[in-house]
Amino acid sequence: MESDKQENNNNNNNAVGSDTANLPEECVAIMVSLTSPRDACRLSAVSSTFRSAAESDVVWARFLPSDYISLLSRAVHPVRYASKRELFFLLSGRHILIDRGKMSFGLEKSSGARCYMLSARTLSIVWGDTPQYWRWISLPDSRFSEVAELINVHWLEIRGKIQCKLLSDKTKYAAYLVYKINGHGSRSFSFQPQETAVIVGDHISNHTVSLANKDETCRNTIMFRNFLRWRGVLTLPYIEDEDNDVFDDADDADDDETVDIAGSSHLRIDGWMEVELGEFYNNEGENSEVEMSFMEVKGRHWKRGLLVQGIEIRPKF
């Protein structure tokens, strides 16, 4: 009986496979185009018919943005491709520079959703055009011709905007500051956490982040508190060393002042760092825009050594 059941299952599977194989390739292509880029790649392994259909322009034209021709016309360098499939994987493998090199564009590989990166030149940076505080330099590992280097400021404020209509509809996005910190610059970001925000319509996504190395943040916080105690401003037990068990009483006494660092930095495959500014769901319509910000204005101490490449907006899963 068990062998009969197995034989029936095999016959059913063969019948399904036979029915699928007999479908015209055009019909299979339409079916595959209603899935996703990831599913299309998986379906290409089903049969030779599916493989041929999954590689057709009918499928990959649907995964490309409807205005891809207009986007390609804005590219700094000509984009050459032999098929829609090749174009999709070109755009999902790397960003292309558009709008005179002030912005980059690409696609998220599994979904085909749009991704953008705003160069530092397109951002609003307080004192950004004052050489005393910021300067503009070129780096070989940046996709843009210029990045902003922080020389010395106590009021750090960076803002960016992008129109919702440029992004994929009904998609969850996140915005990321793409940066590096050179030399001993990390130390100047360790005394006071930074604040970020992403605003779309009535939606506000806030984070408290720190660009500084975690160990350095701890060390400098300890030194700062010890300095305040020495000056008689802070009445907490003296903390001699971060490896000392004397911490316990101080930590307990300062629980109310603890700041929850929600955002953490990550190393990107291009060698830069990134930190999330906030997230949003793009369903706001053509007339709305996304406002993004990164700030540290409360500490009033001098900050230096930050290199800003831009702000990247990409789908978040």
TrEMBL record:
InterPro entries linked: F-box-like_dom_sf (IPR036047), F-box_dom (IPR001810), PP2-like (IPR025886)
Instruction: Please report a single Pfam family linked to this protein.
Output: PP2
SUPFAM superfamilies per UniProt: F-box domain
User: Taking every annotated instance into account, which residue ranges of this chain make up the domain F-box?
Assistant: 17-63
Q: Which CDD domains match?
A: F-box_AtSKIP3-like
Q: What is the official name of this protein in its record?
A: F-box protein
Instruction: Please name the source species.
Output: Rhynchospora pubera
